[in-house]
Each structure stands twice: as C-alpha cells, then as structure tokens.
Amino acid sequence: MKSIQSKDNPQVKALIKLAGSSRERRRTGTTILEGEHLVRAYQESGGVAEMILASETALADPEVRRFFESVPARSRLALADGLLDRISQLVSSAGVAAVIKTPRPGPVPQSVSDCLLLENIQDPGNLGSILRTAVAAGVSRVFLSKSSVFAWSPKVIRAGMGAQFFLSIFEGIDVDEFARSFRGSVVAMEPRAGASLYELDLRGPVAWVFGNEGAGLSESVRRLATHRVRIPMPGSAESLNVAAAAAICLFEQIRQRSVSTPAVPA
C-alpha cells in the first residue's frame, strides 16, 4: 500500500482531474466511486478496481481498514485527509473511493426484449434514478442517445446507488434506428397523448422511450413509436418527472404480467 502526503503528487493531480472532468473520464475509460456503499456494490458485481484509496483517518477505523484490504484492486493508496478532500466531489469526503474501468457492453444485441430507450436525458439525478428503477424492475438493458448525460459520471453513479454495475448500458445509440429495428412495442410517453398507459397490453416485449426533461421526445421518435401514451394525472401538475414516469411504467408492466386478467389490447 502506497502512502501519499503531497498535493503535488502526479497521482493526486490525475485523480483530481478524473473526478472533475467528464472528458477525462471518457478519455481514460475510467471513473471514480465514492463511499463504501458504491465500492461494495461494484465488488459484489464481480468487478476488480484499478485502485482503491482511503484517507488516513478512515483507515484508522478497523472496520474500514478490513473493508479496504478486502476489496479486489490492482493498487491501494492511503492519502492524507486533505488530499482526499481535494479529490472528492462530495460536500464531505466519504473516506473511501475507488477508480474503476468503465464497463463496455459490447455491440448492440440483435435481439432485445424489454429495455429503456432514453433520448437526450440531461439530469444526472434523473438518469441515476431511472437506472436504479430498471434494476429493481428486472430490465437489464438501457440504451442512451448520443446527447444524453454520461452514465458513468460520479453524479449519475451516486444517484443510481451502483445500479450501473448490474445493467448493460449502451451509449451513443441512434434512437431512430433502434426504434425501427425493435421487434416488439415501442411505447413513447407523452403527457398529452390520447391513450392511457393502463389501456395498453404490456405483456409482450416493450422498448420504453423517454425524452428530454424539457423538450420531450423528438418528432422523429414520436412517429416511430408503436404507441404514444400518457400517465393519467387527476391533479393539477402539467407533467411528471421523467424518473417518476419511468418507475410507474415499468411497474405497471410488472403488475400486468403478474395478474391473470389481461389488460385491454391497445
């Protein structure tokens, strides 16, 4: 285990750059996990960290020390407390962090069942919440358009609580092309659509399409959708947060598949 005390150390400078720059994370194909929960989730997914690092104060705790030493990692780093604070993107450093390789899912599979197709999602919290919901609902594949927020940014990872490690995430996808080739229902959510979500038969394969938080879906994607539906809202709100809408849709699909009485076909 290597110990570092100086803020001028090249490794510390590289870690600060990695934590604060999306361009650097994309360039290096790595990202940072902060906190024991995320590091443990990555460990449980079978991942081996490139590096695990912890502050000297955190390592003085026997339980943290045991965890630090048990995590599979190619290298280990002990940092002066002030150095980890410089690297951390949190208001208060979590004491433990890890650098990991960003998983690569490989080519888009020829045959896809249930999935999420996300067009230009910009808010890291929204994307993280959607990914967490996907894991909970048993939807393992998520496709992101070229202009969507990076799924492996620290903010998205924190919002997803490590959901990324249990999903196949495909980024830079041509949403129109994917929607054309999908063998199943392409369901686009629109607040003003005539049909209700609860009127659709969701027992077959579904590609759920959600758009940008402000602009919604592009016209080309709306035209390609098999169904355009809304979530009924008796209240005065104009629309739902995209992450909340995704959760309602995925769990309505689970509900339909778990009951004997089928929904009315759309």
List strands and helices in order, with pairings.
Elements: E1 2-4, H1 10-20, H2 22-28, E2 30-34, H3 36-44, E3 51-55, H4 56-59, H5 62-70, E4 76-79, H6 81-87, E5 96-101, E6 115-118, H7 124-137, E7 141-145, H8 154-160, E8 168-173, H9 175-181, E9 185-189, E10 195-196, E11 206-210, H10 219-224, E12 227-230, H11 242-258
Task: Walk me through what this model shows.
The strands form two sheets. Strands 8-7-6-11-9-12-10 form a seven-stranded parallel sheet. A five-stranded mixed sheet has the order 1-4-3-5-2, with helices on both faces. It is built from eleven helices and twelve strands. The longest helix has 17 residues, at 242-258. With 266 residues, the protein is an alpha/beta fold. Helices cover 37% and strands 20% of the residues. The N and C termini lie far apart (61 Å).
Strands, total number: 12
Shape: elongated
Q: Helicity range of the residues?
A: 25-40%
Helix tally?
Answer: 11
Largest sheet: number of strands, sense, barrel closure: 7 strands, parallel
Biggest sheet strand line-up: 8-7-6-11-9-12-10
Category from helices, strands and their pairing: alpha/beta
